[in-house]
Design brief:
Rossmann fold, SIR2/SIRT2 'Small Domain', 2 domains, three-stranded antiparallel beta sheet, 28% helix, elongated, binds nicotinamide-adenine-dinucleotide
Amino acid sequence: MSAAMEILPQDRLFVLTGAGISAESGIPTFRGQDGLWEGHRIEDVATPRAFALDPQLVWRFYSMRRAHALKCKPNPAHVALAQLEEKLGERMLVCTQNVDSLHELAGSKCVIHMHGELFKSRCSNARCATKPFDDVKTYQNRSDIPACTRCGALIRPHICWFGEIPFRMDEILDHLQRCTVFLTVGTSGVVQPAASFVEVARQIGARTCYVGPENPANAGAFDEVVLGPAGERIPEMLRSLIKPA
Ligand code: NAD
């Protein structure tokens, strides 16, 4: 396997995943197909303004995604990363832009969902102290959407929408600034701030590698680009990743 992705006992691995790692599990990527949902641009149903204007439309979109994601299973890329974590322990973090739970279903424990979680909901009132809670329900009509038991505002998906700040950025930057190997899987390299993580990793001297079927927009920032589907390339890489101490 590549020099960039050899993992030595002193290494710390930061893995950034995007929609592409879940593609082989049957979850569509954002920019795949025509990027539309029932005639709406995805960007138009994934904003705070969209929720304020039409919460039913937004909940129907996320309800459809919940119902679909419930049927999807981790693929060999999720499983291989979980197996790698068993070997590396706290020296490895998976930071995912994905809102599905496939990393956890594969067995990964140290996962940060920077864009939120599909199977959580929270109060839409930013000043309300109610914490996000597990929620697999689907809401089709305005009258189905629950109100917060504390403040009465509508419950919304626990998702980082366009124009909102990703979750747990302090923890993410802390891990990023200590990594020695940076692996990105299946992301187009255009959504910020995730697309800039590779630059941070490079600045501190980490080896950087991208895996996916096509070059991402920021391909030039990686020491190495491994082309191919994650479900094939990641397990192949894992087989030769761990060197004897
Ligand atoms: P994107 O749709 O912009 O890009 C998907 C990338 O995956 C592309 O670069 C494509 O080449 C690659 N890809 C396609 N098939 C692949 C495969 N088999 N193996 C590896 N890579 C493959 O997605 P993005 O860059 O992650 O960013 C867009 C946003 O979409 C993120 O904010 C994310 O939250 C959201 N999103 C999440 C999910 C999910 O939770 N599964 C699904 C769709 C979108």
